[in-house]
Amino acid sequence: STIVIDETYGHYYLDWSAVVFYFPHYCFRNLHPLVINDTGESRVVLDESADTFTHIVPEQNINILLNTQVDGDLPAPDISGPNKGLIDKVYTFTISGEHPELLPIRFGIDWINSIFTTVNKYTDYTENGSQEVGKSYSTTGNKKIHAISQDENNLNSPSSPVHNIDIGPWPEADLDADRTLIEEGESVSLTWSSEHAESCDGINFNTNGNTDGSVSVSPSSSTEYGVECVSSYDATEKATSYVTITVGEAESPIACGDIPLPEANPANPAEGQVDLLVNQSVIWSIPGGLPEGAVGTPEWIGDSPLGGKSGVSIGNIKYTTIGTKTGGYSVQDELGGVCEKTIEVEVKVDPGYKEI
Predict the structure, then answer these.
(1) 14: phi then psi, degrees, rounded to nearest 5
(2) 263-266 and 213-217: which strand pairing?
(3) Beta pairing, strands 130-135 & 91-96
C-alpha cells in the first residue's frame, strides 16, 4: 500500500477505507526511520507489526513499519506478596506492570472488595514498572487485593489477578508446672499449650514440635524452662512462656513468724459481751486480710465446725459444747511452702441459761 502524508509535525493519522482512526483510540506513532522535515522528528517503532507499508513524502521514498496501540490494551499488573499474615501487622506487597510504550504508569489498588470495584489508593507514577505498598488489617479472615495500571492520560488497564491473604490472630503460648519447688532427685510435670501456633519448641526440654502436651523433668539444679510457639500465620512471629523450677530449700516468700494470729469474736454480741458462748454464732477472721506473699485462699483448721472451711473470714460458726476450742488457718506461698497459725479459745455457757 502507498500512504501519502504531507510535510507536517507530530503524530500521523490515517483515514482508511471509510474507517476513521483518531487519537486516543488508534494512533500511528513511532514511524521509523521516517524523517518528515528538517526537525529530524522520528520515534522508535513498537516490536509488534502487522504489515509493511510504502510511505511517500516529498523527495524521499522509505519503507516503514506501521504499528497501532489500542487504548484497552494497557496490560493488567501483577501483585506479589505474602498469602498469610497477622492482625494489625503491616505487610509489603509489590505491584508490577509496564506500559507498552514504556511511558510512566501508576497503580490503583482496591483493598476491600472481592472483585475490583473502587480504587482505595493510588501509587505514585513510576517508569521502572513496579511499586511497593504496605497494608495492615484490623480484622481476621480472607482479604483480597486487586490493582489496575493507569497512564498519564487516565487510560486504565484491566484488573490484575486477585491476590489473597489470610489474616489471623497472634499466637499464644502457656507453660505450667504442677509445682515449682522440689528437692534434688524429684520430678515435676511441665504442661504446655498454645493457640494459633504451627509448632512449639521447648527450652531445656523437648516438645517434639507439638503445640500442646506434657513432660516430666528432674532438674539437678534450679532451672528455667520455656516454650516458644511459631505463629501459623507468620513464621517470623513467636509466643513464649516460662516457668522456673527451684531445686532444694528456698526461702519462703512468706515469713511465717510475721503472719497474724486469727481472731474469734461473737457474731452478734450483747452489750459488753466478749466471751464466746455456746450455740451463738462466732466469726473467725484474719486481721488485715491475706498475708503478704500468700497465694490462693486461706484454709481453716481446728475443731468442728471450723475445720475444712476456706476464706479470709468465716462466719456462722456455732459451738454446741462448752470448753476449749482450737482454731486457725494455713496459707501457701508461691513456692509451695505452707504456714499455719492457730489459737485456743474458750466457749462458755450462755449466762442467760438456767439450770433445770
Answers:
(1) -125, 130
(2) unpaired
(3) antiparallel
Exposure class string for 31-61: b at 16+ Cβ within 10 A, else e = beebebeeeeeeeebbeeeeeebebebeeee
Element (H, E) at 63: strand 60-65
Q: How far is residue 266's CA from residue 252's CA, in Å, rounded to a whole number?
A: 34
Bond before 24 cis per omega within 30 degrees: yes
Q: Report long-range pairs for 77-83 (Cβ below 8 Å, ≥24 apart).
A: 77/107, 77/147, 77/148, 77/149, 77/157, 77/160, 78/160, 78/161, 79/145, 79/146, 79/147, 79/160, 79/161, 79/163, 80/163, 81/145, 81/163, 81/165, 82/165, 82/234, 83/163, 83/164, 83/165, 83/166
Q: What is the DSSP string of 200-245?
A: EEEESS--TB-SSEEEEE--SS-EEEEEEEEESS-TT-EEEEEEEE
What is the distance in angstroms between the CA of the first residue and the CA of the last residue of the chain?
A: 142
Determine which of 95-99, 132-136, 291-295, 322-326 has the lowest per-residue pLDDT on average. Answer: 291-295
Q: How far is 215 from 245, CA to CA, in rounded Å?
A: 14
Taking a C-beta distance cutoff of 8 angstroms, is the pair 229, 203 a contact?
no
pLDDT one-digit tens code per residue, 80-112: 999 999 999 999 999 999 998 888 999 999 998
Buried b (16+ CB within 10 A) or exposed e, 121-134: eebeebeeeebebe
**Contact predicate 225/192, CB 8 Å:** no
Is the per-residue pLDDT at 51 higher than 50? no
Q: In the structure grid, which three cell numbers stand for residue 246, read together?
A: 527451684
Instruction: Using DSSP, state whether 273 is helix, strand or coil.
Output: coil
Contact by Cβ (8 Å): 155, 132: no
